[in-house]
Structure formats: C-alpha cells, structure tokens
Amino acid sequence: MVRALYPGSFDPVTLGHLDLVARARRMFDSVTVAVARNSSKNPVFSVEERIELLRAELPGDVEVVGFSELVVEFAAREGYDAILRGLRNIGDFEFEYQMALTNRHLKPDIETVFVMPSHAYSYVSSSLIKDIVRFGGDVSSFVPARVAAAMRAKLEG
Ligand code: ADP
C-alpha cells in the first residue's frame, strides 16, 4: 500500500486541487487531503468549512482530515509514504523545492511527489478566486458550483 497525503490550505478547494487528486488517485493506493489548521494566512473559511466543501466534492475513497502540526511530522506519525504537492508554474517550484528538501532532511523515508495539473488550471489559485468574488466576478470556471455559492455568501456580504 502506497499512501499519499495532500496537505494545503484549501481556502477554498478549486478545480485545480480536484484535478490533482484525480491524477493522484491513479498513482497511489490511497490519497488523503489534509487541511492545515495552523496556516498563517488569513482564511475566509474555517477549517471545518473547508473540510466540508472538500468532502462534498471528492470521491468517497478520498479521506479529508484537519491537522495542526508540521506536515512531515503528521505524515510520519500517520504512516504516509508520500506528500503530494501541485506544481502550477515555475513560481511554485522554488518554494516547493526548498520545502521538499527540508522535509526530506526531517523525515528521509517520506518522498514529496509533484504533480502538474491540467493546463486549464495551471493559473488557478484560491487567493485570486477570492479577489474575483469580492468584486462580484464569475468564478464558475475555477471552482465547483457549491464552492462558488459558499464564497458568494461569505464575501459578497
Ligand atoms: P498552501 O497554503 O499549502 O499552498 P493551497 O491550498 O494553496 O495551500 O495549495 C495546496 C497545494 O495544491 C499546493 O501544492 C499547491 O501548489 C497546489 N495547488 C494549488 N492550486 C492548484 C491548481 N490550480 N492546480 C494544481 N495544484 C494546485
């Protein structure tokens, strides 16, 4: 069994995140999405809301959990083999590379695996989508309908 952990903020989940999970399900025996509780970013959705939105969009065999420690510590304690991260563009690479090597130093047995999303989602980010909704724009090409509705309820006021 090769088990992957996909950690992130998911504030909120986008079609890019879902694309990545779909690809990862073909590579790993199991994929668990882990929502960070200790993110320093100023989130729009609570961790519980983010988990709920993810669960509603993901297939039943993908577990969704919250976590509040270092990703690599959580992954090691829970027995994951790999940390999954998305690489959208060269901008993601620098930070992700640094983090992957740091995590390998801390836990040499856990591999970080990078997957590229479909070209159509390579410029989609949760933060840009939040800006679009704040200004009343249409995000239906970037997030599931349920997520778009939840964002309108939060951000349009
Ligand atoms: P974080 O705060 O950890 O960056 P995000 O929710 O922004 O949390 O992203 C979680 C992971 O998903 C990261 O590896 C990120 O590169 C990846 N990701 C974000 N948006 C996309 C997308 N549109 N397509 C593919 N991967 C993505």
Overall description:
The chain is α/β, with parallel strands linked by helices. It has six helices and five strands. Strands 3-2-1-4-5 form a five-stranded parallel β-sheet, with helices on both faces. The longest helix has 17 residues, at 90-106. The radius of gyration is 15 Å and the shape is globular. The termini are far apart.
Quick structural summary:
With 157 residues, the chain is an alpha/beta fold. It is built from six helices and five strands; from the N terminus they run βαβαβαβαβαα.
Bound molecules: adenosine-5'-diphosphate
CATH superfamily: HUPs
Give me the number of helical elements.
6
Q: Strand portion, in percent?
A: 15-25%
Total count of strands: 5
Unreliable stretches (pLDDT < 50, length at least 5) are none
- For the biggest β-sheet, the strand order reads 3-2-1-4-5
Shape: globular
Radius of gyration, taken over Cα atoms and rounded to an integer in Å: 15 Å
